[in-house]
Amino acid sequence: MSDPFVVVGGDAAGLSAASKFARENPDGDVVVFEKGRWVSYAYCGTPYYVKGEVEHLTDLLSLSPEDAADRGIDLRREHEVVGVDTDAETVTVEHEGDRFDQPYGDLLVATGAHAVTDPIPGSDREMAFTMHGMDSAAAVRAALSPAGEQWVDTDVEYVDAELVQQYTDRDPPERVAVVGGGYVGVEMAEAFRAHGLETHVFQRSAHLLPPFGDAVCERVADHLREQGVSLHLNTAVSELAGSDGVEAVVHDDGRVPVDLALVGIGIAPNTRLLSDTPVELGESGAVAVDDYGRTSVDGVYAAGDCAEARHAVTGESTWVPLGLTANRAGRAIGQTVAGDLEPVGDVAGTAVVKAFELECGRVGLVHEDAASDAGFDPVSVTIDAGSRSGYYPGGDETTVTLTADRDSGRVLGGSIVGRDRAAIRIDTLATALESDLTVAELERLDLAYAPPFSPVWDPVLVAAKVLRGELD
Amino acid sequence: MSDPFVVVGGDAAGLSAASKFARENPDGDVVVFEKGRWVSYAYCGTPYYVKGEVEHLTDLLSLSPEDAADRGIDLRREHEVVGVDTDAETVTVEHEGDRFDQPYGDLLVATGAHAVTDPIPGSDREMAFTMHGMDSAAAVRAALSPAGEQWVDTDVEYVDAELVQQYTDRDPPERVAVVGGGYVGVEMAEAFRAHGLETHVFQRSAHLLPPFGDAVCERVADHLREQGVSLHLNTAVSELAGSDGVEAVVHDDGRVPVDLALVGIGIAPNTRLLSDTPVELGESGAVAVDDYGRTSVDGVYAAGDCAEARHAVTGESTWVPLGLTANRAGRAIGQTVAGDLEPVGDVAGTAVVKAFELECGRVGLVHEDAASDAGFDPVSVTIDAGSRSGYYPGGDETTVTLTADRDSGRVLGGSIVGRDRAAIRIDTLATALESDLTVAELERLDLAYAPPFSPVWDPVLVAAKVLRGELD
């Protein structure tokens, strides 16, 4: 009997791979080692759990351990893989103090990423949190609950009941700090404001959501201020100060008293497991893979937030840790390991985020600088256009940035922001970009028009029209 | 001095062409002859005017005669072109009983289409209407107003005040019939129900909105019934009976008493003007044109609802009279006539429609029959998928039909229906289809994911995944 397909990490990439493998190859064995108790949870949903729009933490689970067993997956939770020997083709696993070696036929490293807090002293205080993982989400929600009120259901076996109780017993905060103005920062600002808290967002650079480009950033900043958020831009946080918990955010020009701090300044790939192996990392520090998710070592794959992927525009290897990428790559690798070669697919850097009532999207190379760095001669325009026919109620001004290469006319990237069906429109650009369309081809697309949904010229077409004028 | 660019018809295609020409060639002359009083109005908005969501008829105007003059367009309303002599290169124009010949350098025929009522006797009665044109919209809205209440503003010079007064003075209907279950029929059913009227929709075939495919049709039918609409499917109307106005819809199996009937059974291109010319029509009966909107006669162009266009999937000439097509073709022809050759662009048959709370979209070849007729070997699937992450509130089941060619795997068409951001998602398919993507390529697109807007696998990706399983 051959050795099993071993998967390290029981989240999106890992369980997608295991599920697909088990379905394609019902006679094969697949073992998933997950170091924690939670598996297959929707990380992107955690801000909405803290906000209160999602009632139970377990609502965020997409696959229960029982479901996994039904699919023929040997899922071992609280099993941490602590070593990989690519010569012997074994992994070393720790479980409840014991340690054993598990041989593998093929190996998928799907170890994910972790939240970075490094440059900020005090991030380990009580009432200082990151938002990476279900335990964090439970802790933050417990911290917001009035003392003694049980907002987090600790009956569920996955929940770290001790951590939850610790925060349930504390008085709730009145003033909170969000350190970092990326996705998590913007989503958590919305969550905190929904609880009526005085909310401060600190961002080192001049812009929130930097990958979305200036036009989106500016509308989001204005909107957050309208929603009562205090923005501290161009402000580097030097410390989370306090004695019993967090009491103030210290920055270059002063200090802001707060009772809770959420640090969302970035994530880094979990690759330590591979440090003593010949598996090569890419420039980003994530695992380098080919079009099929294969690493530099035969029989070893990597997928999800710990792995790189090829960028649809630049053709270069890049690190864009997002949910679809993880699911898709995992699924493809499961199929490949089962014997049917399947590419993991390129990434276009497509991302969307809700900022209170604003919908934001971005794809490809938005900034002219990024496009220049990739060897293009970029031209970029930003336009405003209605989301519906002007006479039809409920529309909103939609701001589109579109960037193209001057020589070839090829669409390189874009962004979009508005209140009315703005985010989902980025899919048009993602499709155009992955199809290597030129601006002229984009301008001539036969897109949807009906007064309740879109004006005759969709905002994306308006941007293409204006950009084409710049290119001619 | 050379002869002017003459445009026949002052709506979307005609005025887009004239505007673009005037901008590109400020020294050139452009004359637009429009037989009516209204110019450049949003036909697609008229149901929402009747419904009451759009307050003034003039809100539907996208370009006033004054705006046209400011753009350097010589716009002549109430000037009907009654003849074309392509040898002499002149058109014959009637205005207030006078008749004159106007020489042209280039000629654009943008005469639009008209509502068909032919097979239904009684369509000329009082309280029987079509919805083609602003005068019809004004009349229907006046007919709905309580006797003596002035819902339609007759101060505006464009309005046919006599017609409006005639219907304002009448008692309003309590029971209305919509004959025809296409776009107009579905939109007008919504408008009538908004006024609390007993509403009957008669459709000759088994399905509403036939071009959208069975899955959309079925959900729309269920939804209309939920909204209190009486559907009469497979029911051919033989007459609108009555003495003073409409009193009943007569069909094969009986009669339904109503006080008003709206006939929306189709439109036909206005091409009579060309009947004595060598300008060739296509199989559809609309004017045949090439990739630049040129007809079979030098210097004569056609665009908008009277002209054909090339289909992006079949490559064949087809007649899809919709708003964007008209605007885009007009604009391209304006540029071409100004000396800068510009293609009018293919049509993908993209269409979206709102049916009460449902959003519907379609593109390309949805029906397997249509795909077979075009020489493909079609495979089609229909799936249901969430519009948002399952745990995030406000989502709706989204139904996607996707059709592809078995041999090549090429995406041929699709449809979509749901309450939450469904319609605009058709643009992803339109872009994919115009880029000749295969189902495998579609499945690997990096589309947007964030819990409030889309699940990890967008419904379009789910459909691609399932269809690919059928193709393998």
UniProtKB/TrEMBL annotation, chains A, B:
GO molecular function: oxidoreductase activity
Domain FAD/NAD(P)-binding: 5-310
Pfam families: Pyr_redox_2, Pyr_redox_dim
Highest taxon listed in the record's lineage: Archaea
Keyword annotations: FAD, Flavoprotein, Oxidoreductase, Redox-active center
Family listed: Belongs to the class-III pyridine nucleotide-disulfide oxidoreductase family.
Protein name: FAD-dependent oxidoreductase
Natural source organism: Haloarcula rubra
Record lineage: Archaea, Methanobacteriati, Methanobacteriota, Stenosarchaea group, Halobacteria
